[in-house]
Amino acid sequence: MSGITDWSEALADPCFWAAHYALHPWGAARDVEAFFGRSVEHCEAFLLNLYGDDDFETPLPSDAEYEYPPASVLGLSFPENYTWMLEFGGYELGHEIYHPQIYPEGLLIAGESAHFLLPGLRWAELKQMVACCLQPQWSEAFDPQTLYPLLYTIVDPVTFAEYDEVRQTLRTAWGALQIVNPPQLEPWLEDSIRVYEKGQVLSYDAIQGWYDPLEQRVRDPKVLLAPRTMNKEDLWLSASPGNWFCTNQHSMRRYGHHDTFAPFFEMLDRHTQPHR
């Protein structure tokens, strides 16, 4: 398989978004199918092109280290020679930062698969990337607002102060893509936006208000959770650059040290100070 080469066409295809969001912990297959109008089965050919033909049956030497090269790579260019790469392969998506001197071999900042890895992004940092920093070649192919749904899967839980802005921004971005089932948009936003408040990560529902979705699933006898889902893990959130704290909630575990990513985010600050 040659992988995706025309990203303008790919990002206009509901199958791309169904595949992308199916990786996310809250992206239940039934919700993805209802929102995008495409099932994973319907998108099988697209998936093979996006992620490659993941053939794990090929025997390897006993001392070999398995590495599955990405089948499709989407590069986002930023000032000062920084590049953010989305690398799709083996039914995983790695988000890597590259720089010729600072990150010549790339630095994994987030991974989306059955074993989700963060730190990823804060909402304010995603806004910086979209509004001020993305280089012109992106907008020549498609709307930079596409970055909001594309990268929101690796955004930290937001604050109540950010919630209305996040919801309106995502509503506008999804509407511009014109690939979603309109009646499903508001329920999808309610389910996909997480808010951190006083040690809890919450979702909103029009009927029951704010609630802890994982606690609700634990109480539901119809939902069978894997043992690792039942264990509380440390979720590290970034209140400000260089200031991270632990929520110790049912959620994804952060890996790595924030200082290794600092040069990229300092670059964002340098190029967005006048816009604050």
Write the SSE topology:
Elements (H helix, E strand, L loop, with lengths): L6 H4 L3 H9 L6 H8 L7 H8 L20 E7 L3 E8 L2 E8 L3 E10 L10 H11 L2 H6 L5 H5 L8 H18 L7 H8 L2 E3 L2 E6 L3 E3 L1 H7 L7 H4 L5 E5 L2 E4 L15 H11 L4
Helix pairs in contact: 2-3, 5-12, 8-9
Explain how this protein is built.
This protein is α+β, with helices and mostly antiparallel strands. The chain has one domain (7-54, 69-275). 36% of the residues lie in helices and 20% in strands. The chain is built from twelve helices and nine strands. The protein has helices at residues 7-10, 14-22, 29-36, 44-51, 123-133, 136-141, 147-151, 160-177, 185-192, 213-219, 227-230, 262-272; strands at residues 72-78, 82-89, 92-99, 103-112, 195-197, 200-205, 209-211, 236-240, 243-246. The strands form three sheets. A four-stranded antiparallel beta sheet has the order 1-2-3-4. The chain is globular.
Which terms would index this structure?
3-stranded antiparallel β-sheet, alpha+beta, globular, single chain, 276 residues, 9 strands, 36% helix, 4-stranded antiparallel β-sheet
